[in-house]
Amino acid sequence: MSSEYQARYDSWHRAPEAYWDEAARRIDWITPYEKVFDPAQGPFGRWFPGGTLNTAANCLDRHIAAGAGERIALIWDSAMEGRIARYTYRALRDRVAKLAGALAARGVAKGDRVVIYMPMVPEAAIAMLACARLGAIHSVVFGGFAAPELASRIDSAEPKLVIAASCGLEPGRVVPYKPILDAALERAAHKPRACLIFQREALRADLVPGRDEDYLDAEAAAAPHDPVPVAATDPLYVLYTSGTTGRPKGIVRDNGGHAVALAATIPLMYDVHPGPGSASEVMWTASDVGWVVGHTYIVYAPLLAGVTTVMYEGKPVGTPDAGAFWRVCAQHGVKTLFTAPTALRAIKQQDPEGALTRQHDLSKLEALFLAGERCDPPTAEWIAALLGRPVIDNWWQTETGWPISARFRGLGLTAFKPGSGGRPCPGYEVRALNPEGGLMPSGEVGALAIRLPLPPGCAPTLWHDDEGYRRAYLETFPGWYRTGDAGMVDEDGDIWVMGRTDDIINVAGHRLSTGAMEEVLAAHPDVAECAVIGRHDAVKGEVPLGLVVLKSGVARADAEIAAELVALVRERIGPVAAFKDALVVQRLPKTRSGKILRATMKQMANGAQPVIPPTIEDAAVLDQIAPLLSP
Question: For 4, 146, 324, 452, which has the most beta carbons within 10 A of its beta carbon?
Answer without folding.
Answer: 324
